[in-house]
Amino acid sequence: MLMANPATLRNLVTRYEALRSTHARLGTPESRRQLEDVSYTLCVTTGTRAVPDALAGPAPDGPAGGGGAPPGPAAVPRPP
Length: 80
Description:
Blueprint: H1 6-26, H2 29-46, H3 51-56
Helix pairs in contact: 1-2
């Protein structure tokens, strides 16, 4: 199994958390698109299909099998 570069993974998680906060505050189409983009990249990088699964994986600099709890709701509804 391929493992994501720990620095890349930390960067993606940090970016995801910041964009999630921004989208919750602004709720604009642009903030939604950016959140969807980083969510997709985070899932591809970790080999998962959902952000909670990506965030629950091993911590990038922690012990194997360790993990973090998802920082809240991750689903971003798609516009109709």
